[in-house]
User: Fold these one by one.
Assistant:
Number 1:
Amino acid sequence: MVEQYPQEAEPLVLEAYVLCAYAAAEFSFGSLSKLTRARLLLVKSIAINPRAMKGSAYVTLGNLYYRLPGWPISYGNDDKARQNLEAALKLFPDELDTNYFYGDFLVGQGEYPKALIYLEKADKASIRSESRLSDLKLKEELKHRLKAAQEKNDDGGDFFSSLLPTSEE
């Protein structure tokens, strides 16, 4: 598809998705080359059409920057993650994935009150007909992430408090 439609962003995003899936299944240092190729495809797709697939390139790129380790192992970078995820939000402020992944990133940064705003907005977002299966799966993950963010927010983010028994136990 990339060869057939070289001036279209969507095939680049789809190829990047496939490379990320292969890299996740492989989970080795060899998978880093697939993730690096995915990053290049996503950057290229953004240059062609940043709005393609409702900002999915920005979301995926932000997620890669967030989840991957930084130098010298890989190209992970929290500042670039934030920039890409916020760019997706500016384009599509009401979408499930833009709000979920930005909220998830904020949880990872310890910004629980702000994360809750985006996770709650994701919870209210509609399921897209063109992404029904992935959106339903994301909604399932969202329930757990939202609960964890609420608990972290309520206890001030103290890791050890989540290990203590509650009064119900």
Note: Residues 160-169 have pLDDT under 50 and may be disordered.
Number 2:
Amino acid sequence: MKVKTLAIGHEIMKITPESTDAIVVERINRFLVDVNLDGEIVHVHLHDPGRLRELIYPGSKVKIRRTEGKKTAFSITSCVMNGEEILLDTRFHNKIAESLLDVQFRREVTHGDSRYDFATENGFLEVKGCSMKVQNYVIFPDAPTVRGVKHLSNLTRMKGEGMDTGVMFLIFRKDAQYFYPNEMTDPDFRDAFLNARAKGVRFYFPKFSLKRDTIFFDGYVSQGKDPFKEHGFVKEVEKYR
């Protein structure tokens, strides 16, 4: 499965309409957040099912944009931490991934009992977004994912049947250098990931930055050694469980 070689800083896409600053008041549930927008409490949609405890909490800074929803008039585009804008809206993931694919593809294709983000001539590609960073690692998932384990198991099986299968982890933390599965949150995902890796499923770890509603390509990170063997790393992860 071929991916493009893009220059660092290559512009991937612009997000519209323009985002504006707000402050989180409370996360009501997985998809609904109350924010303070110029002194007014507003319900906004969060299109990311992750826990995001290190990013979305009372007082954290977010950028929101107007969207058409049944219950809200705004959606969270990103959060801002230490001056870094971190994309949180998963609706942009497949569009971002498309910019890297160097093969013909079809979108949202069902095969067997699962649906995959992309189908190519001889295989399937699934896309995941990563925003949780501990030290210089991004780790995934930040919440147990039965669906993710199922995807990895199916992709591994299809690889054994001769198909070209892969997973693209989109990384949205500018200082990240390495990726590793989050075994503390989901050991089943960790096992499925390592098995898929050993059986030849392809993995891609492209990194992106977000600046003033424009997404840029920042190169690739690599899979690092198991950071969970380090006590200090484990203690940091525990803060967000």
Note: The domain at 15-87 is CATH 2.40.50.580 (OB fold (Dihydrolipoamide Acetyltransferase, E2P)).
Number 3:
Amino acid sequence: MRIALFKDSEASFIRALDEAGIPYESRMQFSVMAAPTMVEILQTVATPGAIAAVFVAWQKARASRKIILTLHGNKVVHLEGYSVDQAKELVPLIDHMAAIDTQPEEKSD
């Protein structure tokens, strides 16, 4: 599953994957997309439930965060309001997704 990390989402989303122990590969992206980083979750190792839990928790942590899934067949789903169980059902259907945070992380001094 490919994930485009937009705006200020890169550090916090990768940290969420790391904390959940979900393996991924990070790739720099050079294209017309505004996402400088792409990560690919290694779904053969990570379970749909663990992946869904990270998606839902990451998005719920801040109102400025959005997750947009593109499922097989080009159906687009905005993950807002989904429970972990609902998101878990979608994980096997994801072709690619975007994680967007429109606000930078607050820096601690």
Note: The longest helix spans residues 48-60.
Number 4:
Amino acid sequence: MKKSILRWELGGIAFIVVLGTLLHFAFEWSGRCIPVGAIAAVNESVWEHLKLGFWPALVFAAWEYGRFGKSTNNFRLAKTVGIYVIPITIVVLYYAYTAILGHGLLMVDIAIFVVAVAVGQLVSYRLLIASPLPKRLNRFAPIALAVLGILFVLFTFYPPQFPLFRDPVSGGYGIVG
């Protein structure tokens, strides 16, 4: 079972990276369709790029749940923690390297996205194969995912005026242009 779960988690890396990459362009491809903006990047801010990992990882987790979610330990917690690790890793690595260099580099940003997705999936794997954790943690996990999903949608349309939400290209927040 461990090998099968590991294969799924590794396959999830590819799925999330490919779907996340498509979501980077989906808002423009849709003709700037507002509902698409809820899940796709609407500008070049760090916040909008975090959605590129969240929504595909959530879709992949739902797919996995249908395959083996009921037969593994800690499924809801594992997927929630793994999904939270992705944006946290992106934010930490992005701001660390741009603080050192003084600017961003597209290839480094792309590498950070891939690394963050891989770290999230591997954290998820470790929790999936771990001994059962307290059931209350698994019950709390969907609430934590819902909160993050709501924040991604809400802050797309009503972004706080903080650097995380600022589009470096236009200087604006949320849907710009």
Note: The first helix runs from residue 2 to 29.
